[in-house]
Amino acid sequence: MNLLENIREGLRSIASNRLRTILTSLIIAIGITSLVGILTAIEGIQSSVDSSFAGLGANTFSIVARQDAFRRGGRVQKQDEPIDYFDAVNFKRRFPYGATIAVSTVVSGAAQAKFGSKKTNPNVQLIGGDDAYLNVKGFTIQSGRNFTQNDLTHALNVAIIGIEVANTLFEKKLNPLNQVIRVSGTQYKIIGVLDKKGGFSGGGDDRMILIPLDNARALAGTQKLSFDITTSVPTVSDQDEAVDEARGVMRLVRHDQLGQLDSFEIERADDLAKETANITGYLRIGGFGIGFITLLGASIALLNIMLVSVTERTREIGIRKSLGATPKRIREQFLIEAIVICILGGIGGILLGLGVGNLIAGVISQGKGSFIVPWGWMGLGIVVCVTVGLFAGIYPAVRASKLDPIDALRYE
């Protein structure tokens, strides 16, 4: 009996026990689904995060004040003093790089917008910004226009709203442009609607209302605001030098003494992306560990089923041996059966894992991420399937090959 005939015999044996083959393959499929599904979901989430950072731009950095206590050099430092309006304006005036600089502030992170009887949930971000804010932050205007210098100079009551706010208030039945909404007790005329951004932020950018910076200062009244400065340099290669220059300018603006720690923090877009990629790497390791444990349970179940198969086919093994089948061919037959069952289950598990993983990633990223096909993880899934087949089939195959043909023929 040659190898090719052995393969055919193994396939015939699998086909003759369809129900057992299907149930066994399902065990493997569930294990592979958990492995490929988790890793696909992580890849999809990472893709969404990368898209979000790409929209912001790799050549941007932000200067912000730390709002919480932080630890440096083994000592807990108090939070930074907020960056006030004059700090931001002075930095923008002194920075020599000719970069695009946007100054913004969050007036409220839980505002509510109203239009007639319609109103949003109290989770709208009310932000004051200048005419560079949308460009630097990676927003796109769907309809309407950006702020003009006249809007900013005279602090007019005009607003640019996110797509989610527009859909909630106007339900796609009415053109939002030139309509008047009420936010924080003040009426604003809508001059622009933003395209959907969504992404890893959970859709918070789509629940935004942007008003002129000086209007936001007036609206805040006695509330102490902290201003963020976001800078976009012409090219990525300029960023290192620009960040160093920005740190020096900001220390002068903030009157930080020589030897004193910075009273602010510079956040680079590419640093955030790298940090997120590191976290995703740990998630991949955890996901692989969970999938591996599931597959280990599936391989034990397959081992048990293959042992049952050997017992059921003891007389068949005796006949084969009496006709000249060597122990090697008997081992091959059972190993081939185990591997084929695993591959069938693996293919089904990979397809299910792709669907489940992309569904999870799509829900988390709110449909912002693209459909992910992780070829590397799919290849790993097939390799794992073959390995599981070998692991689960080797002991039953060896046991079958060692049966005495006389005793096997007597088995009932």
Could you describe the 3D structure shown?
By secondary structure, the chain is of the alpha+beta class. The protein folds into two domains: 3-53 and 274-410, no CATH class; 59-267, no CATH class. The chain has helices at residues 3-16, 18-56, 85-94, 133-137, 149-153, 163-170, 213-220, 239-254, 269-312, 314-322, 327-364, 375-401, 405-410; strands at residues 60-64, 70-72, 75-77, 100-111, 113-115, 118-119, 124-129, 141-144, 158-161, 180-183, 186-194, 208-212, 227-232, 265-268. Strands 1, 4, 5, 6, 7, 8, 9, 10, 11, 12, 13 and 14 form a twelve-stranded mixed beta sheet that branches. The chain has a two-stranded antiparallel ribbon with strand order 2-3.
In short:
The protein has 13 helices and 14 strands.
Main attributes of the structure:
412 residues; alpha+beta; 2 domains; twelve-stranded mixed sheet; two-stranded antiparallel sheet; 14 strands; 56% helix; 17% strand; MacB_PCD
SSE run: HHEEEHEEEEHEHEHEEEHEHEHHHHH
Structure class: alpha+beta
Count of distinct structural domains: 2
Unreliable segments (pLDDT under 50, ≥5 consecutive)?
none
Report how far the terminal alpha carbons are from each other: 25 Å
Q: How do the helices and strands line up, and which of them pair or pack?
A:
Blueprint: H1 3-16, H2 18-56, E1 60-64, E2 70-72, E3 75-77, H3 85-94, E4 100-111, E5 113-115, E6 118-119, E7 124-129, H4 133-137, E8 141-144, H5 149-153, E9 158-161, H6 163-170, E10 180-183, E11 186-194, E12 208-212, H7 213-220, E13 227-232, H8 239-254, E14 265-268, H9 269-312, H10 314-322, H11 327-364, H12 375-401, H13 405-410
Parallel strand pairs: 7-12, 9-11
Antiparallel strand pairs: 1-13, 1-14, 2-3, 4-7, 4-13, 5-6, 5-10, 8-11, 9-12, 10-11
